[in-house]
């Protein structure tokens, strides 16, 4: 299954941003990587309802878009770690603001505190 992309005939920057991070899993993965590098297994553990296939696809897309960095170590067994790139780190204040907007706008819902680090 390919990436779902919103038609963007006017090359709107907001539509492009939503094409990059606007699905169910990508903001969660960025949030998880906000506190440092994680391996595939840890990401899978922190998102138990995602399939391995979907996690792999989402990580590849985030890497292609320059949001995360995939670092492969020359070890046996092979070890791969994912971390945020500078582009990904620049998203953290935006995600934190979005989280704050949600808390301010939906006061009737009790939310868990988001631990989004801003660098």
What's the short version?
The protein has 119 residues and is mostly helical. The protein is built from five helices and three strands; from the N terminus they run ααβααββα.
Element layout with pairings:
Elements: H1 13-21, H2 26-33, E1 38-39, H3 40-46, H4 52-64, E2 68-73, E3 79-84, H5 86-105
Antiparallel strand pairs: 1-3, 2-3
Percent helix: 40-55%
**Strand coverage percent:** 5-15%
Q: Mean of the pLDDT scores? A: 87
Q: Mind summarizing the main beta sheet?
A: 3 strands, antiparallel
Q: How large is the radius of gyration? A: 15 Å
Strand order of the largest sheet: 1-3-2
Total of helices: 5
Shape: globular
Distance between the termini: 35 Å
Features of this protein?
3-stranded antiparallel sheet, single chain, transcription regulation, WH_DNA-bd_sf, 119 residues, 48% helix, 5 helices, mainly alpha
What does this structure look like?
By secondary structure, the chain is mainly alpha-helical. The radius of gyration is 15 Å and the shape is globular. It has five helices and three strands. It comes from Gaetbulibacter jejuensis.
């Amino acid at each position: 299954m390919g990436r779902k992309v919103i038609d963007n005939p006017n090359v709107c920057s907001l539509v492009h941003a939503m094409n990059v991070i606007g699905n169910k899993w990508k903001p969660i993965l960025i949030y998880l990587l906000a506190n440092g590098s994680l391996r595939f297994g840890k990401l899978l553990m922190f998102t138990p309802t995602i399939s391995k296939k979907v996690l792999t696809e989402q990580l590849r897309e985030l890497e292609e878009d320059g949001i995360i960095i995939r670092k492969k170590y020359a070890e046996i067994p092979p070890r791969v770690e994912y971390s945020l790139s500078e582009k990904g780190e620049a998203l953290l204040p935006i995600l934190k603001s979005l989280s704050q907007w949600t808390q301010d706008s939906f006061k009737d819902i009790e939310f868990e505190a988001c631990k989004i680090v801003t660098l």
